[in-house]
Amino acid sequence: MNGARERIESARPFTHRARFSLMESFNPCLDCGICCTHFRISFYWAEADDAPGGFVPAHMTEKLNHTMRCMKGSNEVPRRCSALSGEVGKQVACTIYENRPTPCREFPVYFEDGTPNPKCDELRATIGLPPLPQAPLPRAA
Ligand code: SF4
Ligand code: SF4
């Protein structure tokens, strides 16, 4: 789906740390990154760090309208967020991981029961990556 980032409203525990820091030993995003080249990464303008309390580097964003901004590179074709480093499908990283905008934080790799996000699998297939395995859920203490 081109244009706006799809949001999976049923955000689950993995979402807060998903994408580039899912787990130290298991992180399917590190050799993927396709979603960072697929969606327009748009968010409320005040998430950028030139607004009080903002955190996303403003110089890596561009204005969409009076209330919204997006990540540079994500509103054009070919699409690629300017914060993404590396080669998609090989080895990637988010260079602003700690300060990434809300849509990146909310896009789940896995749902609560460990089921992979089907949108990830759909996107991964476009670059020849296999479907995500079931998540290795944390062991009980
Ligand atoms: S498409 Fe899914 S698996 Fe690939 S980088 Fe994005 S969140 Fe991670
Ligand atoms: S800010 Fe980071 S996680 Fe979000 S689209 Fe850009 S590279 Fe991907």
| Helicity level | under 10%
| Number of H- or I-type helical stretches | 2
Ions, cofactors and other ligands present here are: iron/sulfur cluster
Strand/helix succession: EEEEEHH
Count of individual beta strands: 5
Q: What's a quick, concise take on this entry?
A:
The chain has 141 residues and is mainly beta. Helix content is 10%, strand content 13%. Strands 1-3-2 form a three-stranded antiparallel beta sheet, with no helix packed on it.
How does this structure look, described?
- With 141 residues, the chain is mostly beta strands.
- Residues 1-17 have low confidence and may be disordered.
- It is 10% helix and 13% strand.
- The chain has a domain at 2-40 and 76-126.
- Strands 1-3-2 form a three-stranded antiparallel beta sheet, with no helix packed on it. A two-stranded antiparallel ribbon has the order 4-5.
- It has two helices and five strands.
- It has helices at residues 102-106, 118-126, and strands spanning 42-44, 61-63, 68-71, 84-87, 91-94.
- Strand 4 (84-87) and strand 5 (91-94) form a beta hairpin.
